[in-house]
Design brief:
Blueprint: H1 15-32, H2 43-66, E1 73-74, E2 77-78, H3 84-103
Antiparallel strand pairs: 1-2
Helix pairs in contact: 1-2, 2-3
């Protein structure tokens, strides 16, 4: 996930945060795709789960980085201190939208296409 979202230079991207984001994304996907795809999901479902994990991770980081004075880069771009929060949220929103679009062909009947909010309390 660090490579996919180019987050390798952020110390805040801890193993615990990555694991929590992956668990969140996995629970979102498992709750929505049809049962026949749970054991061996098609590639677009795997990509969608990765994108959802990245979106969750970015949302968790956004508030931490919003006021931080240290240099922060996302996808190779320097983020100005005052513009970090909206910039990171925009990337998270785009990743989530792409993920939900990828999941559509494999959704259970009546499955919601919005994701529940990621609770970040306790995740460091």
């Amino acid at each position: 996930m660090r490579v996919k979202f180019q987050l390798d230079n952020l110390a805040e991207v801890t193993t615990e945060l990555i694991e929590a984001s992956i668990e969140h994304a996995h629970s979102v996907v498992i709750a929505r795709i049809r049962e026949e795809y749970l054991e061996a999901p098609p590639e677009p479902v795997v990509v969608a789960e990765t994108l959802l994990a990245g979106a969750a991770l970015l949302r968790s980081l956004s508030s931490r980085l919003a006021l931080d004075k240290r240099e922060a880069r996302l996808a190779g771009h320097q983020l100005e201190t005052g513009k970090r929060f909206p910039a990171i949220l925009a990337v998270a929103d785009a990743a989530e939208a792409e993920a939900l679009e990828l999941l559509k062909p494999w959704l259970r009947h009546g499955a919601k296409t919005e994701t529940p909010a990621l609770l970040t309390a306790g995740v460091k």
